Amino acid sequence: MTSPAGAAAAVPAGSLALRLRDLDKDFAGTRALNKASLAVRRGTVHALLGGNGSGKSTTIKILAGVYTADAGELEIFGRAYDLSHYSPTTAQDAGLRFVHQDLGLFNELSIEENFALDSGYPRRGGGIDWRALRHHVRALLEEYELKLDPSQPINTLRPSDQTMVAIARALQGQTSGQERILVLDEPTARLAAHESELLLDQVRRRAEAGQTVIIVSHRLREVLSVAHDFTVYRDGRVAGALVDAAPSEEQLIELMAGRSVAALRPTGQASHARTEVVLSVKNLRSGPVKGVSFDVHHGEILGLTGLVGSGRSSVLKTLFGEFAPSSGDMTLEGKRYAPSCVSQAVAAGVALVPEDRAREAAFADQSVSENISVARLKENWSGGWMPRKRERDAARRLIAEFGIKTAGPDALLSSMSGGNQQKTIIARWLNRAPRVLLLDEPTQGVDVMSRADIYALIREAASRGCAVIVASSDLSEINALADRTLVLSRGKITAEVQAGELDVDGLNRLVLRERPTSPADPADKTEPNA
């Protein structure tokens, strides 16, 4: 490991693909980056790590030309760039290519059409030369060892192939001897474990062939399996830089957090499950869900896991009234439960923290207090108006209770880190004291520090008697949280595991045992995100 100050100097300049030095960036008086640096060697996978709010996302946006740095020096393949006049076009011309968590693909269009939208359609005789386009795209897919038909719609591909298509599209046009840097921002955040392995294997092969890659991810085990070098940010500064190293996960976490890993990585929890059944589901059929039955008890944390298309998310959305079941029976505390809409589910005491926070739960341009109070508007509404003082006072109490790091109740949700946004959404629903709390990928895109806080909030809810159902593709999360786990495959329960019976590897074997044989399985089409 090198010191933060000597990180860039430790690597010979001639071997560098990219060098950032003394990078500063302020947002309305808040210092996001303070003399940060980054030195990326040619032909390596370089992991840029840090907790939410550490400055890594700001760095990526500066490299992409989205943000303008206040100060700093940038060199790409030995050429210096003026950051005060740096733009997305400059980044493109310099050889930087970005693939974000939101892949930017058009799901209803074919693979070849997505490529053409980026590079242009070949023309012939006044029209589109589809044959030339197909030949061009097929050659690119073969280069990336993707056995796909260029005419396939994007939404028929498995998630790892969608990401690889986005990577191939980003790097298309790269000629022999021409160097580019591929920046992957949370590429596996939406992928199940086996899908992540497929993608990372492809990334590894590209690096072996000489491709330079910068990867940003919260999944440290995956990063450790693929990265050569590591730069860790904390509070806008470099907390550590490791060149050609093999650190442990604990070392990286301690660099990110600045404190002992023991407080951040709880290995088990006391079960608060009781004998009384809160929610009973019998022979539920809904979309890809094909006859699922289970009970959830007071104080129990029930885990749902499975591959993409298994039906885990559809189970939650049916319980929350978003999806209408085609058949089956549900009871909530002994009474028939059949919500025809979300408002009926909420009135019955059921709450959902969805997988896609940005699209389905967060009001980014509204304040923290407004995001929290939205679940209790009827109770808070008085005489045709909302008493803002009451709303802010309630928000202040919940901010303190849930450990939400924010400038205050009037701060915009968009000004906060992903982990604190997620805690705000969880606070919104726990403020209603729900009978059943449904959580879909509750720590997706969240750093290890916020993850520990969220786990504590979930366990505290269970200790108060709330029945909790957690759907997650992260088997470490399921293993750490669940009192009991149901493994789903193609809409059916294929295994039930009590806490402590299996470790993560054992759970993974159960999940993969019923792997779908086709990437275009009908269940995947019905429910693209699981």
TrEMBL record:
Domain ABC transporter per the UniProt entry, residue ranges: 18-260, 273-515
Species this chain originates from: Microbacterium album
Superkingdom of origin organism: Bacteria
GO MF entries: ATP binding; ATP hydrolysis activity
SMART domains tied to this protein: AAA (SM00382)
This protein's name: Sugar ABC transporter ATP-binding protein
Any matching Pfam family: ABC_tran
Keyword Kinase assigned: no
